[in-house]
């Protein structure tokens, strides 16, 4: 697929680097212009690492990833210009070339670059009004850009204060007011939703099925069905839908209403008590 050896080697290098970045035991040599990686699993008790690249041989610390310091404790490296300080984040296994590129980009806003909560790879979000649901291309982690936590698809519906769009989570006061409004207004809103859903589903399904069968008969089967056959087909589908739609309505309301009540008076109330 890649006939040029140089291009193929570069492609394989990027694949290997992507795999190493996702490994929490990888430690990158801190020497300038060196992207050598040391697989340092189980080296926490003996933190002195040595770069195996020919001509380098830099010794560095497993814990702080800085040059070896036998006479002093680990000191966190100063954050690069324009980068956020990754407080209480996992280890940062990014390679030195990537870090230098970010450091040179002094025009980048600090809040535009954050670290993945799983693999700590640097991720940049373009300030174009896009959503806060992020997917790390290195490890595949799905996380929230605002709280930097791994999330599920219902995270932005939860009382976390994180919004699908926007630059900041809600304040604690606003979040509490919203949760109180949900608790107090849930009976009325759920009753309204159920009251609208019952006639819409009960009447809407037969109408939809009748129109769908009629459109199909007038289309592909127009030449094979007579007018009486089309009328009989539409009538039978509507009658069958009238029989099935109340069952679908009962199941939808019977399952949906308890789920909504459980969420409001379970998840939301527990969040208020924290």
Strand proportion: 5-15%
Q: What is the spatial order of strands in the main beta sheet? A: 1-2
Shape: elongated
> What is the number of beta strands?
8
Order of helices and strands: HEEEEHEEEEHH
The level of helicity is: 40-55%
* Integer average pLDDT: 78
Largest sheet: 2 strands, antiparallel
Radius of gyration: 29 Å
**Class from helix and strand fractions:** mainly alpha
Low-confidence stretches: 77-108
Question: Helical region count?
Answer: 4
- Give the termini distance in whole angstroms: 56 Å
Describe it.
The chain has helices at 5-21, 96-104, 172-218, 227-273, and strands at residues 26-28, 37-39, 48-50, 59-61, 113-115, 122-124, 133-135, 142-144. It is mostly helical and 274 residues long. The strands form 4 sheets. Strands 1-2 form a two-stranded antiparallel ribbon. Strands 3-4 form a two-stranded antiparallel ribbon. Strands 5-6 form a two-stranded antiparallel ribbon. The chain is elongated, with a radius of gyration of 29 Å. The model is unreliable at 77-108 (pLDDT under 50).
Descriptive terms for the model:
single chain; 274 residues; two-stranded antiparallel sheet; two-stranded antiparallel ribbon; ubl conjugation pathway; transferase; zinc; E3_UB_ligase_RBR
Produce a short descriptive summary.
The protein has 274 residues and is mainly alpha-helical. The protein has helices spanning 5-21, 96-104, 172-218, 227-273, and strands at residues 26-28, 37-39, 48-50, 59-61, 113-115, 122-124, 133-135, 142-144. Strands 1-2 form a two-stranded antiparallel ribbon.
């Amino acid at each position: 697929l890649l006939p040029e050896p140089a291009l193929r080697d570069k492609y394989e290098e990027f694949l290997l680097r992507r795999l190493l970045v996702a490994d929490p035991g990888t430690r990158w040599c801190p020497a300038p212009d060196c992207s050598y990686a040391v697989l340092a699993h189980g080296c926490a008790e003996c933190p002195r690492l040595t770069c195996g690249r020919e001509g380098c041989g830099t010794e560095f610390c497993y814990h702080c990833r800085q040059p070896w310091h036998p006479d002093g404790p680990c000191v966190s490296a100063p954050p690069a210009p324009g980068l956020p300080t990754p407080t209480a984040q996992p280890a940062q296994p990014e390679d030195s070339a990537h870090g230098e590129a970010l450091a040179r980009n002094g025009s980048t806003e600090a809040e535009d670059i954050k670290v993945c909560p799983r693999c700590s790879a640097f991720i940049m979000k373009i300030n174009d009004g896009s959503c806060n649901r992020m997917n790390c291309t290195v490890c595949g982690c799905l996380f929230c850009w605002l709280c930097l936590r791994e999330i599920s698809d219902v995270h932005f519906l939860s009382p976390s204060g994180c919004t699908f769009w926007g630059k900041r989570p809600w304040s604690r006061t606003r979040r509490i007011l919203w949760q109180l409004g949900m608790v107090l207004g849930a009976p009325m809103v759920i009753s309204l939703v159920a009251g609208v859903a019952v006639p819409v589903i009960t009447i809407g399904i037969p109408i939809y099925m009748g129109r769908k069968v009629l459109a199909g008969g007038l289309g592909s089967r127009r030449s094979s069905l007579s007018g009486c056959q089309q009328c009989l087909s539409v009538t039978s589908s509507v009658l069958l839908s009238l029989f099935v739609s109340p069952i679908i309505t009962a199941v939808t309301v019977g399952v949906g209403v308890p789920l909504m009540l459980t969420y409001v008076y379970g998840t939301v109330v527990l969040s208020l008590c924290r």
